[in-house]
Amino acid sequence: MKKTLATTAALLAFLGTAYAATVQGTIQAVDPTTKSITLDDGKIYQLSPKATVGKFKVGAKVAVTVDDKTGMVTSIKKAS
Fold first, then answer.
1. Contact 37, 21 (CB under 8 A)
2. Are 24 and 18 within 8 A, CB to CB?
3. CB burial class (10 A; 0-12, 13-18, 19+) of residue 80?
């Protein structure tokens, strides 16, 4: 009984967490008006309203982590 309860609690906690996907690519465009970047896969990634878009440069290789629930970028790191 205790194992079942613990398993159920762990499963519910897991389901409540947000999923994130990481995509690597090269920045093709930066749009300061919409606070978004376009990668070489053709997809547009929406940045947080608080993001400083000026630090992202076209041609930079990046790893972008996106929250699957909201579609918002949660982090951008330099990729090799």
1. no
2. no
3. exposed
How far is Cα 35 from Cα 12, in angstroms, rounded to an integer? 34
Residue 2 CA to residue 21 CA, distance in Å, equals: 34
CB neighbours (10 Å) of residue 53? 14
- Sequential pLDDT tens for the chain (80 residues): 555 555 555 555 554 455 778 999 999 999 999 999 999 999 999 998 888 888 889 999 999 999 888 888 988 999 87
Could you say which DSSP state residue 54 is in? Answer: G
Helix (H, G, I), strand (E, B) or coil at 24: strand
Check if the beta carbon of residue 59 is closer than 8 Å to that of residue 26. Answer: yes
CA 66 to chain CA mean position, Å: 2
Strand pairing partners for 55?
none
